[in-house]
Amino acid sequence: MYNVKSKKATEFIDHQEILDTLAYADANKDNEALIDQIIEKAKCRKGLTHREASVLLACQSEEKNEEIYRLAEQIKKDFYGNRIVMFAPLYLSNYCINGCTYCPYHMKNKHIPRKKLTQEEIRREVIALQDMGHKRLALEAGEDPKNNPIEYILESIKTIYSIKHKNGAIRRVNVNIAATTVENYRKLKEAGIGTYILFQETYHKDSYLELHPTGPKHDYDYHTEAMDRAMEGGIDDVGLGVLFGLDKYRYEFAGLLMHAEHLEAAFGVGPHTISVPRLRDADDIDASAFTNGIDDDIFAKIVACIRIAVPYTGMIVSTRESQKCRERVLHLGISQVSGGSKTSVGGYAEAEPEDECSAQFDVSDTRTLDEIVKWLMDMDYLPSFCTACYREGRTGDRFMELCKKQQIQNCCHPNALLTLKEYLVDYASPATKALGDALIEKEILNVPNEKARAVVQEHLKAIENGTGR
Ligand code: SAM
């Protein structure tokens, strides 16, 4: 049996245990008494084990699945209200020495233009992002110790935080770079990053080794234990994810939840976020050549089951997904979305010429940030540009503690209203502003206490007349 308290993810995310979990889920997928029992447990909002959640994922009964969707939606509302946090990716460099067979940045791709932003180009990209209204970025880079050493990443973070332009300022830089050393994680922490994000790609070791045939990423153990080292280096907000389409989704789902359980058991804090990317076509990558792709129904079920299994973990869906698909999963558990994204190196300040495309994958949702903000509000969601938790030091276990007590809403709701107001005043189109102002007026009534409400109202007024930031 695997060791729950082990400091190493590889000892805990055990292949045999995942196979046993899948067999258990298969054997019980029509066991309505057990499914009811698991749903009842899920209603306590304390999460589920990977085995329990895998039974729900395998469940075929339409009636029970409807119950699962309803519960996921309710849990999402309880923990996150109607807030949706906004962010954009910023690709720094697509130089890469790995051989990932699904990613166009793989080393053997000789025709994709290789680009690396200079600090001046980063400034231009960030100003363009600030002019859209973004406050949170996810930095992306290929793995290449010569072209993209940690010093380059650290310098880029420093540049980004230093850029003040009109009313814009990037307040939170999350980082998605290759697995690295404890020492480098410590440096990233010192540089003031928000979440360190690293997708496992696949938890299936044999597939992993085949999909990453060459380069440092080939080392499954080093990659899988990255979050352990990140925690050791002092980063307490880490973001997990698998790339759905690489291996069988039920295997990945169990592995992902085991990874979350391991972090909680070993470090006392689960993942801050879980991302659910699906494989997309890209430069020399044909996603249909990978035979484990999942359809929108299974994708929605995965999101709902993750929501139920780890209620306190944020969930991210990117512009890999279409508007229609994003609409569906927002209801079931997503708490963060990207908007107005470019997956190329450069492209925010100036569009890339078509024959120079350096994009990592094709974006499905190509709308502008303003369109995304309006779309969310049309559905009664409250777009939030908030980063207050991080600035107030509410990260890691302190954040989880608040979140588990469903307290995070008391801080988040007013912060969401204020940052949305900033967005409306500084960047929104007239139609978005009108809709947003009406939404804020309605939502302010949900600030629980009267005194707090009055303070928020005062701040809102100050933002409107340009005196409060
Ligand atoms: N170099 C870092 C690493 O190795 O983890 C950062 C990775 S990359 C910039 C971000 C993520 O994009 C990858 O982890 C992978 O899951 C995803 N990705 C790669 N190719 C993709 C594709 N064809 N479609 C969708 N997502 C893809």
From TrEMBL:
InterPro entries named among the record's database cross-references: Aldolase_TIM, BATS_dom, FeFe-hyd_mat_HydG, rSAM, rSAM_sf, ThiH/NoCL/HydG-like
Entry-linked SMART domains: BATS
Protein keywords: 4Fe-4S, Iron, Iron-sulfur, Metal-binding, S-adenosyl-L-methionine
Cofactor section: [4Fe-4S] cluster
Gene name as annotated: hydG
Organism: Bariatricus massiliensis
Pfam families hit by this protein: BATS (PF06968), Radical_SAM (PF04055)
Protein name: [FeFe] hydrogenase H-cluster radical SAM maturase HydG
Keyword Iron assigned: yes
Span of domain Biotin and thiamin synthesis-associated: 275-383
